[in-house]
Amino acid sequence: MSRRSRKGTFHGIALVVIGISLIFYLIPIYWIIATSLKRWPDIFVMPPKFFFKPTLDSYVGLMTVRTMTPEGAKIVGASAYPRQLLNSVIIGFVSTALAVSLGTMSAYAFSRFQVKGKNDLMFFILSTRMLPPVVVIIPLFLMYRALHLIDTHFGLILLYTTFNVSFATWLMKGFIDEIPKEYEEAALVDGYSRFKAFVKIVLPQAITGIAATAVFCLITAWNEFAFALIMTTRNARTAPPALASRMGSSGVEWGQIAAGTFIFLLPVAVFTFIMRKHLLRGVTFGAIKK
């Protein structure tokens, strides 16, 4: 077999493996979308229906509040889910922006300056990621209650930023370490201040790392469940705990849960798609040292 034939065979096998893997990854997404478009009886029928007449009843039921009248169900207003989804957007994106900003500046300081006890400080920052939420949820709840931060946007933003900034610092330090210091030194010689050199020289070259870090921080904040469940009740309640407790007169509203889950997937999927050009290079940049 020639080298070109072996290469073509390997390429074909790789495509088959990727195709099979993609099918397995997409099956849950298909099932969520299909469940959200099925009528209530079709959701539980066995064997499952792959061909059915789609309906938007689950989306309407998720987004509205209805009451029964002699003429039938009547929409009387919007449900709490749109506000809860908006809370997720506000808390997730604001905490991500803060965590990436603080993490980038911290990483620059650790990368460029001789910080006393640098390794110990970096390990201490990383150690905040080692604590499972259930370990710290009780003292945090008591502290938040004393500070009147329960059920506030600021409380969750502060919490998510604190937990994400350690990850952002470690990830961004690897990117900044790969940027040659000579660029900044040349800028300083030309009269730039240290901060101006950081903004004009370092940040443009670290954009791939910033994009990758932002995606991972947003996914972490977006999917967080435990803190959102304990620390919020109504005003700042985000979508994950709201979906988990979705109940109706006939029990668990699986159709509405599927509809809410699909809607919940869209913002972070769109954000990741926008960052796709930087994401692949961002997650591998700095992995190979010179």
Description:
This protein has 14 helices and four strands. It starts with a helix and ends in a 6-residue tail after the last helix. Strand 3 and strand 4 (251-252) form a beta hairpin. The longest helix is centred in the N-terminal third of the chain and has 35 residues, at 3-37. The protein is globular, with a radius of gyration of 24 Å. The chain has two domains: 3-78; 81-284, MetI-like (MetI-like fold). Strands 1-2 form a two-stranded antiparallel ribbon. Strands 3-4 form a two-stranded antiparallel ribbon. Mean pLDDT is 84; it is low at 286-290. The protein is mainly alpha-helical.
Structural class by helix and strand composition: mainly alpha
What is the CATH superfamily classification of the largest domain?
MetI-like
Oligomeric state of shown chains: single chain
Number of helices: 14
Distance between the termini: 37 Å
Percent range of helical residues: over 70%
Low-confidence stretches: 286-290
Q: What is the average per-residue confidence, as pLDDT, rounded to a whole number?
A: 84
Beta-strand percentage range: 5-15%
What strand order characterises the main sheet?
1-2
Layout of secondary structure:
Blueprint: H1 3-37, H2 40-44, H3 57-63, E1 64-69, E2 72-78, H4 81-112, H5 118-127, H6 133-146, H7 153-177, H8 181-189, H9 194-205, H10 207-223, H11 226-231, H12 239-244, E3 247-248, E4 251-252, H13 254-274, H14 276-284
Antiparallel strand pairs: 1-2, 3-4
